[in-house]
User: Fold this.
Amino acid sequence: MKKRLTITERIKITKRGIGVLKQYCPGLAGGKAVSALLAAVQPLVSVWLSAKIINELDGERRMKQILFLVAAVVLTNFIVLLVKSIVDRVTEEKEAQMWNFFGKVFADKTMAMDYADLEDAKILQQKQAASQNLFMFGNGLGQLVWGLNSLVNAAANIVLSLSLTITLFLSDAGSKAVDSPLWILGIGICVVLGGLVNSRATQEENAIFEKWCNITVWFNRAFTFFGQVLSTSLERAKDVRIYKQNTTADRAFQKMEERDKEARAHVLHMAAYPALAAAIASIGNIVCWVYVVLKAYLGAFGVGSIVQYIGALGKLGTGVQDMMFVLIDNEVYCRHLQGLFDYLDIPNHKYEGTLPVEKRAFCDRGDTDYEIEFCNVSFRYPGAEAYSLRNLSLKFKIGERLAVVGKNGSGKTTFIKLLCRLYDPTEGEIRLNGVDIRKYDYDEYLSIFSVVFQDFKLFSFSLGQNVATAMEYDKKKAEQCLKKAGLSERLKTMPNGTDTILYKDFEAEGVEISGGEAQKVALARALYKDVPFIVLDEPTAALDPIAEAEIYLKFNELIGQKTAIYISHRLSSCKFCDEIAVFDNGAVVQRGCHEELMLERNGLYHELWSTQAQYYGNAV
Assistant:
């Protein structure tokens, strides 16, 4: 059983939620509140003015007063409805886009988190629970948007209704029986009791809904995967058909349907609460009518005031019931908001230093010396017992070409993650020009690296924007980088040159490119950034042999004076590098150029090379 949130905690969570809405959806919460206020004011003002018109017609019948009141009704309704229409139009537009804004909440957190946390299974599960509750059911921020509307409307109804009924209870009918406070008590009991019954129904519904939400997290994942990914992903479409994976989806949906039956079994039980509330509300209406009519009959007020008091009492009952619903519902979405905030409040543990990285021109000049050194570095992934790297010492300078090779799981990727400071060493230091890289400003340190990962991603933007990773870019520079990367012929066929949109996600005229072409775009992206260190992780894996050979022949021209760290399973590429570091079981077991390592007949490099060479004839 979850611990109930205190009123103080709920107020604090709600205020923070409103702050998030203001930050990501500016104007949405305020617009909803104004619209709800106007929705509550308009009918009650009309009732009040209508009562005055009827009283005037039943009394002195002053034409000027009647015309004034009629004009006031028409003008007030016109102004309120006009303003509400404008506010609703703006608010509806914002509400239609709020899910995109909510997505940015998670995107911003993801970009701000330590990379290590992005690979933490517990944190991933925490994120998934928060995002699925929000995007699948509207829990949390979505409920807060709608809850604010109900809160303002209910509060306005209660305040305005009470202000219009005070004279009812203060007016003297000249009868002790009619003027007795027991009438007020009876009306109050009916109003409150109806609200309590409704709130009880809300609690029951929320408990069932909460349970249903919790047990359907897996089913929502299944629905997303089978219903969207498998059905729309061209990458998976072939396997789905060949291996009949739709049968797996059928089993998942069958389980989901069984759970839905459990939830539907409570429908009849839940219907009793609204029915009881409606019955109590009917009794309350009867009491109100009798009380108001009796007072009017005894001369306490005019006939028109009957309209005012009956209308106001009806709104009072509705307002009290709605307020009780809001207060119950608030606890539910505060729980979901707390889950979201727990995720957003995950602290960053990585120390982000303050030292600036010296900016240097990356061209053929003598002032571009950067030196990186791994000093007895060991690393173990969080929660793992075994070390992925052990006592690694390695040094390289600007202009060198370093190839990193080894079997799968030997530590190559971990080495790159540490170099780019996605992780920090468990033991030892990594130094840039003799200074521990943890002391440098984190963003500045990252700015000296350009990386082409094996699992790189291109986006459904223009070709030039993909190269520059920016909306605005140097068109001439982008074209030069694409040509260097071997994409000059394909660029000529692009209908709009570098302005051509890639893929068809957002543009029907988008151009689809092959995996090899995409890899060349990724290489051009690394060149465009123009930084001293380029890390290439299997940069030619998707290229055909001719294109790969072309890249290798132009390797020095592509890299220039930059340092290239090259990870590859194709050892033929290592011949283009100044030095080769052979990784095995988290350590560098050999180091040297290709010719030197081939002389070590019993070494791992010779073994790996010979194993590959036998498939290419006399490759050695």
User: Anything to note?
Assistant: The chain has 23 helices and ten strands. Residues 82 and 548 are 67 Å apart (CA to CA). The beta strands are 371-379, 389-397, 401-406, 427-432, 435-436, 449-452, 533-537, 563-567, 579-584, 587-592.
